[in-house]
DNA sequence: GTGAAACCATGACAATTATCATATTTTTGT
DNA sequence: ACAAAAATATGATAATTGTCATGGTTTCAC
C-alpha cells in the first residue's frame, strides 16, 4: 500500500496534475490489487465503480463480436488508466480487460475521480487531452484495419510490441502473446497468423523460439507495403 | 450572422452548457461560413485556428492512406464540433473534412474555446463526455472493420444513413454518397461496392435510381451476418 | 443542348484470407 | 516425470475481395 504522492506511475498518468489534498484523499481510499496472467479485470457490460491505474504489467482490451470471437482494441501499459471512459459517461464497460502477464493495479473509487474531475479543471483538461490522443490513435487504427493487409498488420503489431514493450536479454519480444492473441489483434484467423509468421521466418524477417519472437530485419518489416 | 444565444444547433452541441457571458463572447467573434458540396473545410496536417460548429449539412472526415486512398473515419452532422481534438491537443489535424452537401458552419477561434475549457469546468466535462462517446464509437468501428465482411459493412452503412440522415419524400436516402464514398467508408474497392449493391438489388434488399438508394428490406439488411 | 468528364456496371481473372482436417510440439497440472 | 490439454504448424480447398479491362450512363459546364 504505497503512498500515491511518491508514486512514479501516477506521475505518468493523467493523475499527475492532482494537488496535495486530492492525492492524499486518493491515497486513503485506493485499493491495490494483484491480477494474475489471464485473469479478467473487468468485463464488457460490467458497471465499474472506479478506475484502475496500472502500476505494472500489460493488459488487453477486447470486445466480443457477434460470432463470439474476441477482437483486441488496445493494449494498455503502466501509467494508463483503465475504465475512465465508462466512469465519465456513466455507462457499463464497452470492453473487457484481461491481464497478459501478472499485473499490479490501484483501484480508485468512482466518486473520488468524478469529484476531482468536477473540481479540478486542470485535471479534467489533462484527462481530456489523454482522451483526445486515444481518439486519434483509434482513428488511425480504423484506417489501418480497413486498408492494410493481414501481412502488414501483423508486421505492424510486431514492430509495435518491439517499440513499446521492449525485448528481453536475448532480444526476444517481452510481451508473451499467443498466436490467438495476435489473431484477435490483427483481426484474422489464427491459422493465417501462423502461416504469415512462418512466411516471415522463411524471409528472414523474424525468428522464433517456442512462442517467443525476435525481429531480425526491422527495416523490411517497417517498409512492407 | 445569427445570435448564438438563440441558436438551436449550439444547444445540440457541447457548447450547450456555456453561460451568458461566454456565449456573448463567442457570438462576437465567431465567423459564419458557407461551404459548398465537395469543398474541403480543412485538410490533414493543417494547423487549425479554431473549431467549426456545424449548423447544417453533412461532412466526411477522411484520412489519406499510404496507397493514396481516402478512408472515411466518421460522418459528421449538425450539432457536432469539427476540429476540437486538434485544438485540445494543439496538433495539426489528423483528418480531412470534406462537405458531402452544402454546409453552413460557425468558426470559433481557438483561444475562445481554450479559454472556456480552462475556466468553465462544466464545459470541459461536457466536451470530455462527448469525446468519451466518440472514443467508444471508434472502438466499435475498429471491431467492425476487423470482423465483419464487406457485404455486412456495406449493409450497416446503408442502415446507418437511413437511421441518422433519413429519407426524402420518395423514401430514398437523403445523403448523396457516390460509390466511391461508400468504398472509402467500407474500406474496399469501388468495384466491390458496385457488385455488392447489385447483389443487394437482386436479392430485393434495396432498389436504386441513379445514385440514390432506397431500402426495401430493412430487417434482412440488419440481420445479415 | 451537347460534349467531356465523372460515375456506374460487369466480366475475367488473380490474390488474399478463411475454413476444415490432421499432425506435431509445447505447456501445464499433478 | 508424465499424461492430458493447449498451442503451433501445415496441407487442401473454398470463399471473399482486389485488379484490370471495357462499355454504358449520368451529370455538369459551357
UniProtKB/TrEMBL annotation, chains A, B:
SUPFAM superfamilies: cAMP-binding domain-like (SSF51206), Winged helix' DNA-binding domain (SSF46785). The keyword NAD does not apply. Gene3D superfamilies: Jelly Rolls, Winged helix-like DNA-binding domain superfamily/Winged helix DNA-binding domain. Pfam families: cNMP_binding, HTH_Crp_2. Residues 148-219 form the HTH crp-type domain. GO terms for cellular component: cytosol. One of its GO terms (molecular function) is DNA binding. Residues 14-122 form the Cyclic nucleotide-binding domain. This is CRP-like cAMP-binding protein. It comes from Formosa algae.
Amino acid at each position: 500500500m504505497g503512498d500515491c504522492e511518491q508514486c512514479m506511475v501516477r506521475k505518468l498518468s493523467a493523475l499527475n496534475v492532482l494537488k496535495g489534498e486530492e492525492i492524499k484523499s486518493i491515497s486513503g481510499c485506493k485499493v491495490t490489487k494483484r491480477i494474475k496472467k489471464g485473469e479478467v479485470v473487468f468485463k464488457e457490460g460490467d458497471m465499474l465503480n472506479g478506475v484502475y491505474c496500472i502500476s505494472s504489467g500489460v493488459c488487453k482490451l477486447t470486445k466480443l463480436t457477434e460470432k463470439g470471437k474476441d477482437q483486441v482494441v488496445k493494449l494498455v501499459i503502466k501509467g494508463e488508466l483503465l475504465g475512465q471512459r465508462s466512469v465519465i459517461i456513466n455507462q457499463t464497460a464497452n470492453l473487457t480487460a484481461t491481464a497478459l502477464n501478472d499485473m499490479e493495479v490501484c483501484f480508485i473509487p468512482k466518486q473520488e475521480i468524478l469529484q476531482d474531475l468536477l473540481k479540478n479543471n486542470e485535471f479534467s483538461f489533462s484527462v481530456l487531452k489523454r482522451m483526445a490522443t486515444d481518439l486519434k490513435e483509434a482513428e488511425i487504427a480504423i484506417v489501418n484495419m480497413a486498408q492494410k493487409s493481414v501481412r502488414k498488420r501483423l508486421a505492424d503489431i510486431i514492430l509495435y510490441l518491439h517499440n513499446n514493450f521492449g525485448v528481453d536479454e536475448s532480444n526476444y519480444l517481452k510481451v508473451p502473446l499467443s498466436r490467438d492473441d495476435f489473431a484477435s489483434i490483427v483481426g484474422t484467423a489464427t491459422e493465417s497468423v501462423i502461416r504469415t509468421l512462418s512466411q516471415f521466418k522463411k524471409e528472414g524477417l523474424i525468428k522464433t523460439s517456442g512462442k517467443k519472437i525476435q525481429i531480425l530485419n526491422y527495416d523490411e518489416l517497417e517498409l512492407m507495403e
